[in-house]
Each structure stands twice: as structure tokens, then as C-alpha cells.
Amino acid sequence: MAGEQTHRAVVLRRLRRIEGQVRGLQRMVEEETYCIDVLTQVAATNAALQSCALALLDEHLDCCVTEAIVEGGEQARTKVNEASKAIARLVRA
Questions:
Q1: Are the C-beta atoms of residues 80 and 61 closer than 8 Å to each other?
Q2: Count of C-beta atoms within a 10 Å radius of residue 65
Q3: What does the DSSP assignment read for the chain?
Q4: pLDDT at 36 over 90
Q5: CA pseudo-torsion sign 8, 10, 13, 14
Q6: Does the predicted model carry a pTM greater than 0.85?
Q7: How far apart are the C-alpha atoms of 70 and 68, rounded to whole Å?
Q8: How far is CA 16 from CA 20, 21, 28, 53, 61, in A?
Q9: What's in the keyword line of the UniProt record (predicted)?
Q10: d(CA 57, CA 11)
């Protein structure tokens, strides 16, 4: 449980940082910053979101999916299927 709280705090800190990046992008557009500079920051924000998504996926595989596999049955198949679909969404994004 303590590890879960630590992971949650790390993810929330990352999301707050990303939120700040998005606010910075809004300011850049409002201030008519050079397009290439804005695009560079958009790319950095996308990379930060991808990194956060991968951390969440890793945690899900490590905890939820692993526990379901240990228990076995339909729950295991469901969790593996959910993870597979989440990976597919991340790859398409």
C-alpha cells in the first residue's frame, strides 16, 4: 500500500508539471511566440505525457495484472486484455 501511495504521488507530481507546461504553451501562443518554439514545447509536453502513460502502464502491469494472473481464471484474461488494449491505444497515439 505504501508503494502505491508513493507511485500515486509521483504520477500526480508529473501531471502537475505537465499542466504547467500546457499553461506555458497557452502563454506562448497568447504572446505570439515563434511557431517553431511553440512546436518544440508541444513536442516536449507530448513526451512528458507519454512518459507518464508508460509509468501508469508499468504500475498496472506490475500490480493489477500480476495479481489477476496469480488468482487466475476469467479475471486474469480480462486484465491482460485490458492491458493489451491500453498498449494498442498508446502505440496509436
A1: no
A2: 19
A3: -HHHHHHHHHHHHHHHHHHHHHHHHHHHHHTT--HHHHHHHHHHHHHHHHHHHHHHHHHHIIIIIHHHHHH-HHHHHHHHHHHHHHHHHHHH-
A4: yes
A5: negative
A6: no
A7: 5
A8: 6, 9, 18, 14, 24
A9: Copper
A10: 11
Judge whether 48 and 20 are in contact, CB under 8 Å. Answer: no
CA atoms of 66 and 76, how far apart (whole Å): 8
Residue 34 is placed in which grid cell? 515563434
- Write the single-letter amino acid at 70: V
Residue type, 11: V
Longest Cα pair distance anywhere in the chain, in angstroms? 57
Query: In this predicted model, what pLDDT tens digit does every residue of 14-35 receive, in sequence order?
Result: 999 999 999 999 999 999 999 9
Q: What is the grid cell recorded at 7?
A: 507511485
What are the grid coordinates assigned to 37, written together?
518554439
Place of cell 515563434: 34
